[in-house]
Amino acid sequence: MADGRTPQGAGEDGAARPPSAVRPFLVTAGRVAGAAASARAMPVETQVVATAGGLDVLDRLSFERHDIVAACRRPQSIAEIAARLRLHLNVVRVLAEDLRQAGHLTVHVPDSGAIHDASVLRRVIDGLRAIPDSRGVLRDSD
Questions:
Q1: 10 - beta bridge partners?
Q2: Model confidence over 82-116: pLDDT tens digits?
Q3: CB-based contacts of 75, cutoff 8 Å, min separation 6
Q4: Which of 38, 58, 47 lies closest to 107, judged by CA?
């Protein structure tokens, strides 16, 4: 674009990428995350990492499954995988669960008690406020 921004749907090099012709429900065979009565959708902050077995069979996995396992050589959150691979969040959740059941991924769901702990949020806010701006000035606390 003339103002230096990259158009939506363009790659890092600015070249337009065609939208996927495959609909999300086709990738997951119509399944949705957390649809089973006993199942809960994986939280977006769930950390996923490829297993040795998953990396061994990487060449035999198809399309999105291959891309997810390849991206998880290092731990990644469900949200990071979806953003990096430009896949719908619920598609990543369903496929990650399939890959976990097959032994190709290890899934680490964070402790739900820690997620809702207000003291953690307060420490994050305080830490962000302690970072000086470009002029070296600290932000005043509210």
A1: 16
A2: 999 888 888 898 889 889 999 999 998 877 665 56
A3: 47, 48, 49, 108
A4: 47
How do strand 105-108 and strand 76-77 relate by DSSP bridges?
Answer: unpaired
Q: Please tell me the number of Cα atoms within 13 Å of 30 on its side-chain side.
A: 0
Structure tokens at 102: 């097959």
In this predicted structure, the answer to whether residue 11 has a pLDDT above a threshold of 60 is no
User: Tokens for 40?
Assistant: 């809960």
Alpha helices in the chain (DSSP H): 24-27, 52-56, 63-71, 78-85, 89-101, 112-115, 118-129
Q: Could you give the 3-state DSSP secondary structure of residue 59?
A: helix
Contacts of 94 (CB under 8 A, 6+ apart): 28, 31, 32, 33
Name the average pLDDT for the chain.
75
Residue type, 95: L
Is residue 64 a contact partner of residue 87, using CB atoms and an 8 Å limit? yes
Q: Which amino acid is at 35?
A: A
Cα–Cα distance for residue pair 138/132, rounded to 1 Å = 4
